[in-house]
Amino acid sequence: MREVIVVGGGPCGLSVGAALQELEIDYLILEKRAIVNSILSFPVNMRFYSTSDRLEIGNIPFLSEEDRPTRQEVLRYYRSVVSRQQMNILTFQHVINIERTLGGFLVRTQNHLSKEEGFEARRIVLATGIYDHPRLLDVPGERMSKVMHYYTEGHSYSGRRVLVAGGKNSAIEAVIDLYRNGAEVSLVHRGATVYQGIKPTLLHDIRNLIEKGKISFYPESTITCIEEDHVLIQSLNGPVKIQNDFVFSLIGYQPDLSMLSNLGIRLDHETQIPDFDPETYETNGPDIYVAGVITGGITNKVFIDDGRLHGPKIANHIAKQMNGS
């Protein structure tokens, strides 16, 4: 039986593992796909807004060519951390159930060959993130194959009519990249402006595209229906029909809270923030901890910069529990 099983191999889960390893606490990280899998879904040419030092874990320096690293540099850094630390992690192990036992917990997984396995531990850390569960528009046609919730690159959409829904960083980055790759872009946002709350590095480009009419911008508008060759929206001026080939719905992501609920962890009714001690990150369920962005519920206010700092606090508390103090 392991002392700790960490569910989730993103940056925050790796931070927990690194902190446990430093204190010589037996642990295993279970990740349902690749390490830091969410970053694989980021735009190929993305440059992080966070500086490299704010992404460091495990006391291993992160050196990048510029202060703000690229997606490729970030992937390479976290691979390096896992390799150099010889971290105990199993990838492509999808956790399908966790149940409390007399001695701790039984974690059941399914691997890439659909084979089920079981792992036992005295304590559980949930660091499952939010990126696997996009928020939905909940409109007719959203299940069509032309509708996507992740954006990686714009080359494939050159010369095509692409609509982007959203107004935050991911949506604006997609709009700019699509335009630069030759797509005919429409941007639909329920807010009055996209100039507030985005990265300063995006502001000049998106303002230029909108104010010079290089893209079609529909503020204070919502999608009402998606069809094969067009999208219907409700705009300030009434219904609008937009000819369309592809839709990127980039309106945010939310955690899968079913695992927390099944373990009896209380969730705030409005924010879905789990009930946990902010000093130790132990939840109202004894020996169950949360780490990373999942601690922010549906608020999307916790990022890698903050979540990577949860690991040492969790590891220190577990060490004290093991020593009976």
Features:
single chain, FAD/NAD(P)-binding domain, 8 helices, flavin adenine dinucleotide binding
By CATH, the topology of the largest domain is FAD/NAD(P)-binding domain
Looking at the chains present, what oligomeric state does this protein adopt?
single chain
**What are the secondary-structure elements, in order, as H or E?**
EHEHHEEEEEEHEHEEEEEHEHH
CATH homology superfamily name of the largest domain? FAD/NAD(P)-binding domain
Low confidence ranges: none
The assigned CATH architecture of the largest domain is 3-Layer(bba) Sandwich
Total helices: the number is 8
Kindly report the average pLDDT value.
Answer: 95
| The number of domains | 2
Spatial separation of the terminal alpha carbons:
22 Å
CATH class of the largest domain: Alpha Beta
- Total strands: 15
**Shape annotation:** elongated
Helix percent reads: 10-25%
Instruction: Tell me the strand percentage band.
Output: 15-25%
Radius of gyration: 21 Å
Alpha-beta classification: alpha/beta
**Largest sheet: number of strands, sense, barrel closure:** 7 strands, mixed
